[in-house]
Queue: 2 jobs
Job 1
Amino acid sequence: MQARFHAPTSANLRRLARALRNGALVAIPTETVYGLAAHALDAQACRAIFRAKRRPANDPLIVHVLDRAQAEPLAEFNDTARRLARRFWPGPLTLVLPKKPVVPGIVTSGGPTVAIRAPAHPLARRLLRLAKIPLAAPSANLFGYISPTTAAHVRDGLGARIPHILDGGACTVGVESTVLDVTDPRRPRILRPGAVTARQLELFLGMRVRQARSRGSNTPKLSPGLLERHYSPRTPLVLRRWSGQLPAGVAGVLQRRPAGHPWKHLFWLSRRGALNEVARNLYDVLRQADAGRYREIRVEPLPAADSGGLAAAINDRLQRAAARH
Ligand code: AMP
Ligand code: MG
């Protein structure tokens, strides 16, 4: 199989919507990263996602919907979840709620909860509107590798394993959605930091939002897919402050463009250190460095101080990318 690229014409979107209804896999752009989408209520189609990605069955999928009306038949909403959906959807906030029986067990890894979000990307929305079905869609990469933020990234990992890629250009957010457990509406808890920050959630809800410990032994129970090692290049990645020197065979990744003359083996994530730019470029730059046959990628971490903001999501991904097997 060799994946076909589809430009986002109306005819192609109709064709891909039909393919999805019929159980095919389609890689689609969202504002966070590219997703590998399938009919969420078709267990066989969802099984094909796990096969294509080589994803273990204990790592549940996020279900993408157009809006709350499409989400309500899939999950038991409470008032907190409704308020959050009204405020943050469409957008990069995934809500974990008790699932309703129509959701196949394969989507939730057999668990009693389902993760749902309404993506903001205009092409994802047009496709959802045309297909009229919820779409299960994890990141469109081989399990454990760096998430894809362009159609070319998807092809590099899955090109020989899936039939269709909808090319919507580069993702604007660049890191995955925030996963928020709201099964207990009085005790919302962030399972994965993302583009909607803890600070935004706390301000809006007027209550404390806890962070599940992102590392450590109890994480798999909370959110099975949140492995310590994830989002990883093949080249060993090390987090270390920039010393101004690069040993031979080592690539450097800085948070911002260095002053003066750029060096050959030095990459940077933003021009002036703007966090949204860092997030947007992160996976593309890590992929570039990984393709450079270095023996090590040395990434400058963000200051840990901003733990309630976007920096938390970026550092979370960097720490997982750096974790050893
Ligand atoms: P991906 O779409 O590849 O970013 O992966 C989705 C992630 O969402 C999974 O790895 C889980 O960590 C999380 N997730 C999905 N469903 C659930 C759920 N029912 N409960 C907790 N976390 C979930
Ligand atoms: Mg993923």
Job 2
Amino acid sequence: MAEERALAMVTCTAPVNIAVIKYWGKRDNDLILPINSSLSVTLHQDQLKTTTTAAASRDFTEDRLWLNGEEADVGHPRLQACLREVSALARLYGVEGELSEVARRGSGSACRSMLGGFVQWQRGERPDGRDSLAHQVAPETHWPELRVLVLVVSGEKKQVGSTAGMQTSVDTSPLLKHRAEAVVPERLALMMRHIRERDFEGFGQLAMRDSNQFHATCLDTFPPIFYLNDLSRHIIALAHRFNAHHGRTKVAYTFDAGPNAVIFTLADTVAEFVEVVRRSFPPATNGDQFVRGLPVGAASLPEELLAAVVTEPVPGAVRYILHTKPGPGPQPVEDPSQHLLGADGLPRRCA
Ligand code: DP6
């Protein structure tokens, strides 16, 4: 009988999250400890996800990593920190443990993706970071009408990465210090109340204000950092015109360290707002793939809405819209045919 090789393999998918109270700035760069708590919505993995396969064997002599099929450097300090944390957890508890702490060592905001629905990353007080963890505020089923539209405007790599950008902000921006000390604690409590009460007016207003303040701290950084571009500002103005026309907050934008817009809205507004975006940024070539993800119904726009909201169309500026909603945290993949690695522990060849 052939000798059995002990190869343990696990595949898991993980979601993307979008912060509505932003994380920007670290108090410890090695442990990745933030200067303020933050709060995000985990997006559904039916529309956006990452898939990771990990294999472990006594026969392996070194750590290796492939990212999108290309072998990557395992010497990166953040990756090393994650691998160290995971092997300590495995030794001590099997595979159990506080996984948001491990994810945080890879990238701060990633720790919020370890849970579904509405997630708070608590800043914590301890210098060793043991209390800087992600907690679920409400599950993804809590607000069934909430929808998310990702307006993809540019495939360009961002100019200043978030790690470097937030370091310069911590070093130079008095506004960021004020934000972390005096603004975020109150906003966080308020945002949790809006979520608990499913109050879209309050949730949307605060999400927009917090995105704007994050970008204001970028401008207050010296030298300044610009993540928003003309098109992002165009989308911001469009959202405000749309809300003003309706006399209430029907859509809310938020932007991270790049010009793509994420719009929060409710299911009954999706079709109308998508049509407004289509009229404002008429698709250049991919008209049939302009809207992706969850289905979007047809909407015809009343003349007065068109006149008030769609002012200066910019053809081709939005590449596509992804329609999604809040979703669960990481999911194990049970089907072995979905493993990204073969029995030899190397990436499977794509067919
Ligand atoms: C603007 O988590 O990418 O998206 O911890 O250095 O890896 P590092 O930074 P990262 O920063 C994300 C910043 C943000 C706001 C947010 O998601 O809260």
